Amino acid sequence: MRLSQLFTRTEKEAPKDEASVNAQLLERAGFVYKNNSGIYTYLPLGWRVINKITAIIREEMNAIGGQEMFMPALVDKRYMDSTGRWDVEVAFEAKGKKENEARFTLGWTHEEVITEIASKYISSYKDLPFSSYQIQTKFRNEPRAKSGLLRGREFLMKDLYSFHASEEDFLRYYEKVRGAYHKIFERCGLKSFYTLAAGGDFTASNTHEFQVLAPVGEDTIFICSKCEYAENKEISSLANGGLCLKCGGKVREEKSVEVGNIFPLGTKYTEALNLQFTDERGNKEFVVMGSYGIGLGRLMGTVAEIYHDKNGLIWPESIAPYKFILITLDHTKEEGDKLYQKLLEQGAEVLYDDREDKTAGEKFADADLLGIPIRLVISPKTLKEKSVEMKMRGKKVTELTKLKEVEEKLDLS
Ligand code: ATP
Ligand code: MG
Question: What is the pTM of this model?
Answer without folding.
Answer: 0.96
